[in-house]
Amino acid sequence: MSTTTLTHDEAHHHEAPKGWRRWLFSTNHKDIGTLYLLFALIMLFVGGASAMLIRMELFQPGIQLLDPDLYNNLVTNHALIMIFGAVMPAAAGLANWMIPMMIGAPDMALPRMNNLSFWILPAAATMLLLSFVVPFFPGGGTQINTGWTIYPPLSVQVGMSMDFLIFAIHLLGISSVLASINIIVTLLNMRAPGMKMLKMPMFCWTWLVTAFLLILVVPVLAGGVTMLLFDRHFGTSFFDAAGGGDPVLFQHLFWFFGHPEVYILLLPSIGVLSHVIPAFSRKPLFGYNSMVGAMIAVATIGMVVWAHHQYTIGMSLGAVTYFMIGTILISIPVGLMIFNFIATMWRGAMTFETPMLFAVGIVLMFTFGGLSGVMLAVVPADMQYHDSMFVVAHFHYVLMPGAVFGLFAGVFYWLPKWTGHMYDEKLGKLFFWTNVIGFNITFFPQHFLGLAGMPRRIVDYNVMFTEFNVISSVGAMIFGLSHLLLLYIVIKTIRGGKKAESRAWEGAKGLEWELDSPPAFHTWTVAPQIK
Amino acid sequence: MSVKDHAGDYYIPDPSPWPIIGMVSLLLTLIGAALALNGVAIGQFAVIAGLLLFFYLLYGWFRDVIQENLSDRYNKQVDTSFRLGMFWFIASEVFFFLSFFGALFYIRNIALPWLGGDGYLGATQEILYTGFEPAWPSSGPGELGGEFQPMGPWGIPAINTLLLLSSGVTITWAHWGLKLDNQKHLVWGLIATIALGLLFVGFQAYEYGHAYSELNLTLESGAYGSTFYMLTGFHGFHVTMGAVMLMAILGRSMKSHFSSHKHFAFEAVAWYWHFVDVVWLGLFIFVYWL
Amino acid sequence: MLQAGLLLLAGLLFHSAAKAEYGLNFPEPAAGVAQEIYDIHMLTMGIATVLLIIVFAIVFYSLYFHRKSRGYQADQNFHTSWFGHWSWVIVPVMVLGVDLTIAGKADIVLKKVWDVPKEENIMDVKVTGHQWWWEFDYLDHDIKVESRYIPEEQSGDLYLREVDNPLVLPTGVKIRFLHTSADVLHAFWVPELAVKKDAIPGYITETWAELNREGTFRGQCAELCGTWHSRMPIVVESVSQDKFTAWVDGQKAIKVAAAAEASADKTWSMDELMVKGKTLYETKCAACHQVTGMGLPPAFPALNGSVLTKGPIADHLNIVINGKEGTAMQPWGTLNDLEIAAIVTYERNAWDNKMGDVVQPADVKQAR
Ligand code: HEA
Ligand code: HEA
Ligand code: CUA
Ligand SMILES: [Cu+2]
């Protein structure tokens, strides 16, 4: 290797580039990570704002705010923006920031492509936004009233906004696949010498598995929506019985992606917890190996149980039995993960800073959501639950604690490292309590609504469902407003605060804590040796 | 800093405008496509502009990569990153094709029998489609697109199989040439591969024309037409892309960019080509033959 | 703890809401399989509750005792104890045990739910979902019932739970439902019958039930089917077999009368057609095109002043009889000649259309 190259590099890289170029043209994992996180934060507020509109509409029976198509258009956008715009980019942002620092690598393996995977996201968000607003222009066709599952034939009836949505999904897919390739390559190829696979920090493991899942399932979704596009415009009949196709085929393609997707949302947060809980219990993670095994098992089983979202479509007895048992079995690896977390807390010397509060909350509330998942998995009973508010309650109980709260925990845990400042602990705790209480008030009553027979995705309901909807909507306002606190805390921490040490938390372990807070623009240009 | 140092000499590129240009080009293309599909005229121009920008981006990005490569910025570890990256990219492509093969499988083995009264849900045929026989190839109970003839395996498809298989051989042969640092051998191997690939695409185009004009086999021909054109179409598109990539590699070979020990770009394209090859075998068996 | 508190809160609310006709759980089943489904639901919920209590108990114990502020020293070797070494086997085995309990019980119920009995005297009801109403064909009795929601002014507190024509079913008879759809996906769901099934256009799915008590059971369409997905209630009127027979006879008589009226070789006057047409239009077409004829653009075009309603009669008849593929406008050819004639006449003369022309049943017959 020529030394001239090295001097060239040093001249250019040891200081951050200035101005807008730094962000638009970035090849630095920390900057790209920051971009991802900011994007996710904005999207959380956009998706949250639509959730607030949804809850306001459902506050009382009758159609007050939103006409029915607009309502379901918002539901569609809410789901897509939250999942693809908020949770996945936030997890990718954590990965970008932390993975190279955790494994002692100078950057991601393919830095330029890294920037591409980020910048496709704003493009996808633009397409999503367009799909939302196009119907309001003359000649814009009808709104997307299909829900995020965009099942045909309804999605064939929708106007041109559906094409914007389909292309948005293509873009999201490209972005995720490129990001996943980068993460896999980084983890396989860039570890510091001596860091064996089974010594990798748990967050890295969770992302490795997540990235594999993404690479395997996202292309199938892309294929599915491509067929939808062809059915809409080129006369094919993949999803049309008259031509020998089947609308249900789309459901299989969608859920072949969709179910693994929920574990894609879950796993990075599990990774965060695997750092937070040991740090604040001041003892090592219980069952590192079994955690890795459990994760791989979740991913593997998770790939082959997709049809539990379609129990009501008339599959054969053999098929539903298989999907039921497969789905129930997922409780084994997930249960093992939860158990490992509890066993890590057990006989630890715990303190309860905000990240730990979230972690404990997750263990309790995610278990609750997971258990309602097992109830859903039981086919005969799902004949009642399916497409009712009970399902909505289930998935917000797994999505919020399982994905979003985990990301919050990660943000609070690593904020000192990123900004060099400690956040305001009092405010953090206040945020936790308003958030968690608001969350439970919002979604707990929805179980009862579902059991009583309220379907999901309806803009208007009978008066008998009023009480619980009122509670839920009031809770949602508390819950929504609590996020303003998050925004305030984050901004405040960026602007100043108590100086953070390199090892911001007493019990924190790992390479990232050996770097300064905030770390230099380029870190680990010389790889650390792992014993 | 020691030269053998693990990470110190891992090449981190300078800030680059290409990703953001990529974003703009994709956005332009897709907004244009969505509009064009719905008959909004400016859509087509946006697509064209977007695609032009996209090709400019590809050109610029790869030019940068090639320059960095030639000025020896990439060490062994960077090379491994590229290899792994290409490998997992191809893996994602495999799953993209799997969705179409999956659709074919589902329609043939689940949807049609169900429509035709097989299996445990006989009522569908009894009540909705009395007399419908679910034999493949089928354009469904509605016989969409009118009567058609399916594409037999033993004409052009068999020739195309031979073409692609031999192109797999020629590219391997070219690789040998590269390993022996024999440029002529390499270049001719590549030229042969490209020729076979283009011949394949030509036959495919002819086959489509034949199907449309004589067999009345169109995209509208129910499930058979849909899966047939989707699978062969996306494959044909990949072959074309592969051929373009081969041409780029050919150009670089003629400029002696590769050496016997360092030629990742060549290998990446070769892998891609083999992948396209294997997909074809799947197509030949499941779309044409069985 | 939080959940426990919320449960309490919900319990309190339940008392105040006791007048509303539902509680915190499924409504009382009205069919055999529904009862079994209810039982399996209670079982899994019970297991889930117990597991949740165990998890909460352990976590809270640990949270309380293993705190730094109590001076507790972390046990750095906990994960290397024998428990640490074997927990990855112990825990899965225990969870597997619970899983198999659930799956085993569920499997038994599942078979009963899934296997539609193959009996001679099973009663077939074909249930067709439309945007946005239900059609019930009693295949054995040659009767058809169209069932639509009733606007709020007339249905009051039962708005979105009440229909004009309920699905009348006898108790004590095994009924096979054949679900299908005329346009997009719908799903038939009446909680008291427990079984929910999707209606897939071009396919037929089956479920069955045997009602074991009389009563009125209300459900809703459970699969998103577009704009008025919320306006597809289902009402099952469960009656004794005698009452059912009487009802069937009544329906048949109505049908015969209607057929006679339609086939009567009579030339209808504009006024007669307009009166008939108005009611028909308002039940069948107004869901989309609205009573005012203004539609809900862009999804549903206005008929008031539209090109087709003011254009040639033939084109107008054509779209009504054949619908328009790929849109929510379905073919209405199953209506009889008189009905179509009335609707079309009405559309051409109502609102500002005032075309002044009359369409006779004979014209419709010709147009088919
Ligand atoms: C992060 C997201 C996430 C996660 C982790 C899960 C986890 C699970 N989900 Fe959920 N699910 C969703 C997101 C998620 N889900 C979404 C978004 C939908 C709706 C999509 C839509 O229709 O729009 C959905 C819908 C959904 C359905 C379809 C319902 C319907 O539409 O009718 C089903 C059915 O089987 C299901 C099951 C499960 C199961 C069994 C798990 C399991 O992984 C849970 C495992 C966890 C535990 C079981 C708890 C911990 C374990 C123990 C304490 C050990 C002991 C336990 C036992 C012995 C049981 N989910
Ligand atoms: C990760 C995914 C995710 C997340 C985080 C959320 C978050 C929320 N969701 Fe969402 N949701 C889904 C995924 C998610 N959801 C999915 C997949 C569906 C199914 C869609 C379908 O059926 O197709 C769904 C559907 C869904 C429904 C059902 C609609 C229906 O079926 O009719 C409801 C109704 O209550 C709901 C509510 C909420 C609420 C109140 C939040 C809250 O957590 C949001 C809280 C956040 C904020 C509020 C943002 C921050 C604050 C502000 C913007 C400040 C301003 C605040 C105020 C004005 C109060 N969601
Ligand atoms: Cu019909 Cu929803
Ligand atoms: Cu799932």
Key features of this structure:
heterotrimer, B: 290 residues, mainly alpha, Helix Hairpins, Four Helix Bundle (Hemerythrin (Met), subunit A), 2 domains, globular, disordered N terminus, C: 368 residues, alpha+beta, Immunoglobulin-like, Cytochrome Bc1 Complex, Chain D, domain 2, 3 domains, 5-stranded mixed sheet, 10 strands, binds heme-A, binds dinuclear copper ion
Could you characterize the architecture of this molecule?
Helix content of chain A is 69%, strand content 0%. By secondary structure, chain A is mostly helical. In chain A, helix 8 runs parallel beside helix 10 (288-302) and helix 9 (247-281) runs antiparallel to helix 13. The model of chain A is unreliable at 1-13 (pLDDT under 50). Chain B has 2 domains: 1-73, Helix Hairpins, CATH 1.10.287.70; 75-289, Up-down Bundle (Four Helix Bundle (Hemerythrin (Met), subunit A)). Mean pLDDT of chain B is 89; it is low at 1-7. With 368 residues, chain C is of the alpha+beta class. Chain C has 3 domains: 2-114, no CATH class; 123-241, Immunoglobulin-like (Sandwich), CATH 2.60.40.420; 264-367, Cytochrome c-like domain (Cytochrome Bc1 Complex, Chain D, domain 2), CATH 1.10.760. Helices cover 43% and strands 16% of the residues of chain C. In chain C, helix 2 packs antiparallel against helix 3 (82-114), helix 6 crosses helix 8 (337-349) and helix 8 (337-349) packs across helix 9 (361-367). The relative contact order of chain C is 0.09. Chains A and C meet through helix 4, helix 6, helix 9, helix 10 and helix 11 of A and helix 1, helix 2, helix 3, strand 7 and strand 9 of C. Bound molecules: heme-A (2 copies), dinuclear copper ion and copper (II) ion. Copper (II) ion binds next to helix 9 of chain A.
Helices and strands in order:
The complex is a heterotrimer of chains A (531), B (290) and C (368).
Chain A: H1 3-13, H2 19-24, H3 29-58, H4 68-103, H5 111-133, H6 154-157, H7 161-189, H8 202-233, H9 247-281, H10 288-302, H11 317-329, H12 331-345, H13 354-377, H14 379-385, H15 389-419, H16 425-452, H17 466-495
Helix pairs in contact in A: 3-4, 3-5, 3-17, 4-5, 4-7, 4-9, 4-15, 5-7, 7-8, 8-9, 8-10, 9-10, 9-12, 9-13, 9-15, 10-12, 12-13, 13-15, 13-16, 15-16, 16-17
Chain B: H1 18-37, H2 42-70, H3 76-115, H4 123-128, H5 156-179, H6 183-215, H7 222-254, H8 264-289
Chain C: H1 2-16, H2 32-65, H3 82-114, E1 123-130, E2 133-138, E3 143-147, H4 152-155, E4 167-170, E5 174-181, E6 186-189, E7 196-199, E8 205-210, E9 215-220, E10 233-239, H5 241-263, H6 270-289, H7 313-322, H8 337-349, H9 361-367
Parallel strand pairs in C: 1-5, 4-10
Antiparallel strand pairs in C: 1-2, 2-3, 5-8, 6-7, 9-10
Helix pairs in contact in C: 2-3, 6-8, 8-9
The structure holds heme-A (2 copies), dinuclear copper ion and copper (II) ion (CU).
The site of one heme-A has 34 residues of chain A, from helix 3, helix 4, helix 15 and helix 17.
